[in-house]
Amino acid sequence: MFYLLNYKTWSTLQERVHKTKIKDVHDQRERIVDEWDKLDQHIIDKAAGEWRKRLRACVVAGGGQFEHQM
Q1: What is d(CA 2, CA 21) in angstroms, rounded to the nearest whole number?
Q2: What are 36-58's pLDDT values in tens digits?
């Protein structure tokens, strides 16, 4: 499911995971999974719904930078 994340969803998740110092990779993984479970379903649905739009923009840009067109 992580491949469906857009930048907004990832930045929200990243902010929550890194709220306090991470001890090691196992702690980080656990936090990511825990915070993913806490994400509001609306945020996940919105990211999934924007995926097709993002793919189209990528194709139009020939695989190059397209964020500025979003």
Answers
A1: 22
A2: 899 888 888 887 788 788 888 88
Can you tell me which residue has the tokens 């709220």? 19
Find out whether 52 and 70 touch, Cβ atoms under 8 Å.
no
What residue segments make up the domains of the chain, in order of their start? 21-62
DSSP 8-state secondary structure symbol assigned to residue 5: -
- DSSP designation for 8: H
Instruction: Quickly tell me which residue has 């979003």 as its tokens.
Output: 70
pTM of the model as a whole: 0.60
First and final CA of the chain: distance in angstroms?
22
Which of 42, 31, 33 lies closest to 9, judged by CA?
42
